[in-house]
């Protein structure tokens, strides 16, 4: 076989590997949003209490966020392909348990397991990309990743609406979980063949104390945020959130000692000395807050305020999804190499403009607004989001050494989940805080429309803050600096 044929075969294998990990990432993104649409059907079919319904969504989110950093580090130590395949297999098994759950308690338990398996699977996606593709090709790859993020965020509700309304084989809501089975099985079989193994080049050990501290701190912060509104924001919730700060301080102190002692900390604090990583993490957290607020209030506005069906609400989001996917692909392939950081800043301003346009249209048309009238602000917002999501990931990871790819990926996903949780917590203030406790049927629509507009002003303000934070990002990601070569780490051979 000639060297050209060998190169072509290797090139084909890595692009197939990319398709496999992207499919798994899409499966997780869809699963996060698909459940919300089917909640009424689950409640009717299973007789679930309100608390159990809350835990069907909250259990997944908590297990996912708490395990992401650990999942990333396990991939660095034991191999990213191995952890990815274990995560996909476990996620698929948990999906089957969800689909065949005989009561609400079993469904909640299976959802917690599913979130834990997603925490093992998802960090490996960016780590495998980081280790498989050279620096000069990652822009194109992260463009595809950004498109998948946009598509998954909006297609979940639409897919959930279709599967629930079709009531396939009389299974009601169960197909929203069972659809993961063929996808997961195919990902495991193909992943074993096409994904190349990689791990940190230096031997690392799992930091069990770090695992305990980061898990405890995240649960103390996220559990009250997740359940706070339902429980009426009790005092113990505020105490837990305040108590998370000294836990995180203890984590930083311990991780510094651990790094000095044996070089195997769970959280690689040296990453925060990389300017692009530190600044990007701050942007990612605040951006997660904006998305957490918007997507929840948008769903409530359409389905409760306007009284639209789940299918109509899902279809209304299609222009947004298409705009995100298109803009994400264009941004990293054509715009970022030429304009650098300005593309992300333009994305923040564009998304903020779309939010203001949405406020204006909602105020002008009120309860009579139509889906087609929402298309313009949604497209503008989608373009802005697409200009951010893919280049931001690229900027954050561009200067990260390969041996810490898993840790960096876990941190990146964790802060995004923390931002989303903070956004969901803010919804109780910026949205539900504007709605009276007792409403007549005639008052529901106007109240939800007004609350939606009020919440969007907050989202617009957050986008302005993101624009300012982006000034701390490097003008260009490392691989786009003219005359620069690949970092030393990128020339190292993969550990096979």
Automatic annotation (TrEMBL):
<feature type="transmembrane region" description="Helical">
    <location>
        <begin position="372"/>
        <end position="397"/>
    </location>
</feature>
<keyword id="KW-1133">Transmembrane helix</keyword>
<dbReference type="GO" id="GO:0022857">
    <property type="term" value="F:transmembrane transporter activity"/>
</dbReference>
<dbReference type="InterPro" id="IPR011701">
    <property type="entry name" value="MFS"/>
</dbReference>
<protein>
    <submittedName>
        <fullName>DHA2 family efflux MFS transporter permease subunit</fullName>
    </submittedName>
</protein>
<dbReference type="GO" id="GO:0046677">
    <property type="term" value="P:response to antibiotic"/>
</dbReference>
<feature type="transmembrane region" description="Helical">
    <location>
        <begin position="313"/>
        <end position="336"/>
    </location>
</feature>
<feature type="transmembrane region" description="Helical">
    <location>
        <begin position="203"/>
        <end position="223"/>
    </location>
</feature>
<dbReference type="InterPro" id="IPR036259">
    <property type="entry name" value="MFS_trans_sf"/>
</dbReference>
<feature type="transmembrane region" description="Helical">
    <location>
        <begin position="274"/>
        <end position="301"/>
    </location>
</feature>
<feature type="domain" description="Major facilitator superfamily (MFS) profile">
    <location>
        <begin position="17"/>
        <end position="479"/>
    </location>
</feature>
<keyword id="KW-1003">Cell membrane</keyword>
<dbReference type="GO" id="GO:0005886">
    <property type="term" value="C:plasma membrane"/>
</dbReference>
<feature type="transmembrane region" description="Helical">
    <location>
        <begin position="418"/>
        <end position="435"/>
    </location>
</feature>
<feature type="transmembrane region" description="Helical">
    <location>
        <begin position="108"/>
        <end position="129"/>
    </location>
</feature>
<keyword id="KW-0812">Transmembrane</keyword>
<feature type="transmembrane region" description="Helical">
    <location>
        <begin position="455"/>
        <end position="473"/>
    </location>
</feature>
<feature type="transmembrane region" description="Helical">
    <location>
        <begin position="235"/>
        <end position="254"/>
    </location>
</feature>
<feature type="transmembrane region" description="Helical">
    <location>
        <begin position="51"/>
        <end position="71"/>
    </location>
</feature>
<dbReference type="InterPro" id="IPR004638">
    <property type="entry name" value="EmrB-like"/>
</dbReference>
<feature type="transmembrane region" description="Helical">
    <location>
        <begin position="343"/>
        <end position="360"/>
    </location>
</feature>
<keyword id="KW-0472">Membrane</keyword>
<keyword id="KW-0813">Transport</keyword>
<dbReference type="Pfam" id="PF07690">
    <property type="entry name" value="MFS_1"/>
</dbReference>
<feature type="transmembrane region" description="Helical">
    <location>
        <begin position="141"/>
        <end position="163"/>
    </location>
</feature>
<feature type="transmembrane region" description="Helical">
    <location>
        <begin position="15"/>
        <end position="39"/>
    </location>
</feature>
<feature type="transmembrane region" description="Helical">
    <location>
        <begin position="175"/>
        <end position="191"/>
    </location>
</feature>
<dbReference type="InterPro" id="IPR020846">
    <property type="entry name" value="MFS_dom"/>
</dbReference>
<feature type="transmembrane region" description="Helical">
    <location>
        <begin position="83"/>
        <end position="102"/>
    </location>
</feature>
<keyword id="KW-0046">Antibiotic resistance</keyword>
């Amino acid at each position: 076989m000639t060297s050209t044929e060998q190169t072509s075969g290797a090139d084909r294998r890595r692009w197939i590997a990319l398709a496999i990990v992207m499919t798994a990432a899409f499966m997780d993104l869809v699963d996060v949003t698909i459940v919300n649409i089917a909640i009424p059907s689950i409640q009717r079919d299973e007789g679930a209490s309100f608390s159990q319904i809350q835990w069907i969504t909250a259990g997944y989110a908590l297990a996912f966020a708490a395990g992401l950093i650990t999942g990333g580090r396990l991939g660095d130590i034991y191999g990213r392909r191995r952890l990815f395949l274990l995560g996909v297999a476990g996620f698929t098994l948990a999906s089957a348990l969800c689909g065949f759950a005989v009561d609400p308690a079993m469904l909640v338990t299976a959802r917690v397991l599913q979130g834990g398996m997603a925490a093992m699977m998802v960090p490996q996606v960016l780590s495998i990309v980081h280790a498989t593709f050279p620096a000069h090709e990652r822009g194109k790859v992260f463009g595809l990743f950004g498109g998948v993020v946009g598509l998954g965020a909006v297609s979940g509700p639409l897919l959930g609406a279709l599967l629930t309304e079709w009531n396939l084989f009389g299974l009601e809501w169960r197909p929203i979980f069972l659809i993961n089975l063929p996808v997961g099985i195919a990902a495991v079989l193909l992943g074993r063949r096409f994904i190349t193994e990689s791990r940190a080049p230096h031997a690392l050990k799992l930091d069990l104390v770090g695992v305990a501290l980061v898990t405890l701190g995240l649960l103390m912060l996220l559990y009250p945020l997740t359940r706070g509104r339902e429980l009426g924001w009790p005092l113990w919730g505020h105490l837990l959130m305040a108590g998370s700060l000294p836990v995180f301080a203890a984590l930083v102190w311990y991780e510094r000692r651990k790094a000095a002692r044996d070089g195997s900390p769970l959280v690689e604090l040296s990453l925060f000395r990389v300017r692009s990583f530190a600044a990007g993490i701050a942007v990612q957290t605040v951006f997660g807050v904006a998305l957490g607020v918007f997507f929840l209030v948008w769903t409530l506005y359409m389905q409760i305020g306007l009284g639209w069906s789940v299918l109509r609400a899902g279809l209304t989001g299609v222009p947004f999804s298409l705009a995100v996917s298109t803009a994400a692909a264009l941004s990293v392939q054509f715009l970022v190499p030429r304009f650098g950081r300005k593309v992300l800043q333009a994305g923040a301003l564009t998304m903020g403009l779309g939010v203001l346009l949405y406020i204006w249209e909602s105020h002008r048309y009120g309860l009579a607004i139509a889906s087609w009238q929402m298309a313009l602000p949604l497209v503008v917002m989608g373009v802005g989001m697409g200009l951010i999501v893919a280049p931001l990931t690229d900027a954050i990871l561009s200067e990260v050494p390969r041996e810490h790819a898993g840790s960096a990926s876990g941190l990146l996903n964790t802060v995004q989940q923390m931002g989303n949780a903070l956004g969901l917590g803010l919804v109780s203030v910026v949205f539900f805080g504007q709605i009276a406790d007792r409403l007549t049927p005639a008052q529901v629509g106007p109240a939800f429309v007004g609350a939606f507009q009020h919440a969007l002003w907050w989202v617009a303000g957050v986008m302005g803050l993101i624009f300012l934070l982006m000034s701390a990002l490097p003008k260009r990601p490392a691989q786009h600096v003219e005359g620069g070569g690949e970092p030393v780490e990128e020339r190292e051979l993969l550990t096979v």
